[in-house]
Amino acid sequence: MLLKKINELPQSLLDFVLAVGRLSDLEKVPVYLVGGFVRDLMLEGKNFDMDFVVEGDAILFATQLARTFSYKILTHRRFGTATLTGREGFKVDFASARRETYAAPAALPNVTFGNINDDLLRRDFTINAMAIRVHAQGVGELIDRAGGKKDLSEGIIRALHDLSFIDDPTRILRAVRFEQRFGFRIEKETHTWIKRSVDDGVLCRVQKHRVRDELVLMFKEKDPLKCFKRLHEICGLSFIAPRFKFQNQWKAYFQAASKRISWFAENFHYKKSHIEPHTMLMGLFFYCLPLGDLKKMMHSFAFHKHETSRIISLKSEFLKVHEELRRKNVKASRIYKLLEPLTYEVILAMTVLSKNHLFFERVKEFLFFYNGQRLHVKGEDLKAAGLTPGPMYKRILNELLSAKIDGEVNTREEELEFLKKMTHQHGCFKTTTVL
Ligand code: CTP
C-alpha cells in the first residue's frame, strides 16, 4: 500500500528516495521518511516537502549523498540538520533522530541523539508521529507507535502526552490549523490539555517569533478565517494584542479579498507572482487595531519587514487615499501619485475596505492605464540640456510624468518641449542652453 503510494510520486522525488535508501543500506545507517510528508502520503494529499530522520549523523549522511549526486547542501551544525536541493529544485531536510527534554515550560528543549522511536514520541500529534524506513528497493513498513494511522482515518488531532502544550505552546495553534485544514476534530483529552495550558498563560510566555511563524502559516491556509474562529473559541485572541477580539466583518473582508486576488490574477497574469495573498489578509485582519497598538504588536512579534510595511501602510494611508479618490473629477496624475507608492496587496486591500464603487474604478484606471507609464526622456536629456544634476532632476521628471499621465504630452518631442517650458519657468539652467 505504502509502496504503491510512494511509487506515485514524481519520478525525480522517487529517484531521490531510492538514492537515500541505497546509501542507507550501504552505510548500514537507518533512515526514515517522517512527519507531514508521511501524513499527507497516507491522506493522498500532495506534499513534496520531504523530511528524513537518520539514526546517526544526519549531516555526515546528507553530505555523502550530496557528493554522490551533486546536490547542493546547506548544513546547520547547531541543530544537527542539513537541507539538500536537488537539480529539479526540490528541497529535502535531514535531521538526526533526537530525544528532547524540556527544562522549563515553553523553553527550548534539551536535545540528545536518540532512535526513531524517541524522535517520533517527541512530536506534536499522533498523525505527525509516523515514519517509513527507506531501503534501496523502496520503502519498508509504517512505524506508528502512537496510533497515527487510526487517528488519521477517524479524523482526530491527538497530542502524545499531557505536557505537550506546556512544553511547546505553539502546538495550540498547530492543533487548530491541522484540525481546520483537514476538517478533523481535536480529541477531548487533548482539548482539555490545551485549555489547561492556555489558562496557565503559556501563550504569553512562549517566544513571540515562534507564535508569529505559526500565525503566518495560518494566514497561508486555504481557509484562514476558520482557523482564527476556532482559535478564538479555544483561547481568545488577546495573546496577539490586548483587547484583540474576533471581528464579524472579517468574513466579508476575507471573501472580498479572495475575489480581488482572483480578479488581479486574471487581469494581470504576468504580475500575479508579485502579490502575497497572506499579507493582504493580514492587513485586513489587523485593520481594526488602532495604529499605535498595531505598530506595537508588529514590533513585538518582529513580523518581517515586507509584511509590517504593508500592514502599517494600509492602516495609515487608507482613509486619506480613499477620501480623495472617491471624489468626482480627480486628475489622473493625482490617482497615480496616491496609489503608485503602495504595493498591490495594499491597493487591493483598500478596495476591500471601501464600499465606494468609484474608488474601485479609480484603482482599475491606475492598474490598467497609469501604472508602469514611462517617459521617453531620461536624466541624460536634462544633462545634455545643461541642467546641473541634482534633486531637481527627480522633481522635473515627476512633473513631466504627471503631465504625460494627464495626457498633456505624448511623444518624445512633446516631452522635450514641455521640459523646455518647465525648466525656463523654474529658472533652473546652469547656462542659457536651450533644449
Ligand atoms: N513538529 C512538532 N512540534 C512542532 C513543530 C513540528 O512535533 N511545534 C514535528 C511534527 O512531527 C511535524 C514535523 O515536525 O510533522 C515537521 O514540522 P512542519 O514542517 O512544521 O509541519 P508539517 O507537519 O510538515 O506541516 P505542514 O503540512 O503545515 O508543512
Explain what this protein looks like in three dimensions.
The longest helix is centred in the last third of the chain and has 21 residues, at 305-325. The chain is globular, with a radius of gyration of 28 Å. Helix 14 (277-285) packs across helix 16 (305-325), helix 16 crosses helix 18 and helix 17 packs across helix 21 (391-405). The chain has a seven-stranded mixed beta sheet with strand order 3-4-5-2-1-8-9. Strands 6-7 form a two-stranded antiparallel ribbon. The chain has 22 helices and eleven strands. Strand 8 and strand 9 (138-143) form a beta hairpin. It has four domains: 1-154, Beta Polymerase, domain 2 (2-Layer Sandwich); 160-246, Hydrophobic Seed Protein (Orthogonal Bundle), CATH 1.10.110.30; 271-370; 379-426, no CATH class. By secondary structure, the chain is of the alpha+beta class. Cytidine-5'-triphosphate binds next to helix 8.
